[in-house]
Amino acid sequence: MEAFQPLYGKLWKFILSISRNRDDAKDILSETFLIAYEKFYTLKNERAFLSFLFTIASRLKNASVNKRKKYYSEEVFEFDDFAGNFISPEDETDIKLLYKTLDYLPAVQKEAIVLFEIFGFNRTEIADIQNTTVTNVKIRLYRGRKKLGQLINK
User: Could you tell me if 73 and 103 are in contact, meaning their C-beta atoms sit under 8 angstroms apart?
Assistant: First the structure.
């Protein structure tokens, strides 16, 4: 587990942002590390390890959604999981609004926006994580941003 420590924070925030449920996020995180450990030998490029972890987490999340077909709309995680200690109340309100609004997007658009805008992955990495083409990622980002803008400006 110590080998994963530097990546833990980013991965936890990503999983929590796409699952929006602390218990599900813990399960996905544990399974992600287990699968990453078991499949580490398949990784061809060590620099792609973070993308490898995010891909596993994304696929586990999608599998759990397909199994249960359950959607969590309530906020069941602590905001401190996302924010640092030095955030203003105005920024905290804006960030909470953003995460609540992201929940109205289709899962693939939400995930693409979170990976691109919040975690800084490039379009090619997102395409690998989402198992799609770069063109589809561009479309998801465009449509997701457009819909977010509409929802926020209501």
Answer: yes
Contact 61, 18 (CB under 8 A): yes
Q: Which domains does the chain have, with CATH numbers?
A: 2-152 (1.20.140.160)
Residue 106 CA to residue 122 CA, distance in Å, equals 20
More confident residue, 66 or 33: 33
Q: What is the DSSP letter of 47?
A: G
Q: Pull the structure tokens for residue 41.
A: 């030998």
pTM of the full predicted structure? Answer: 0.67
Question: How far apart, in whole angstroms, are the C-alpha atoms of residue 2 and residue 98?
Answer: 33
3-state secondary structure of 114: helix
Q: Give the span between the Cα atoms of 121 and 147, in whole angstroms.
A: 21
Token output for 16: 């929590």
| pLDDT tens track for 110-148 | 999 999 998 889 999 999 989 899 999 999 999 999 999
Tokens of 29: 């995180």
| C-alpha to C-alpha distance for 19 and 24, rounded to whole angstroms | 7
Which structure tokens are listed for 104?
């109205």
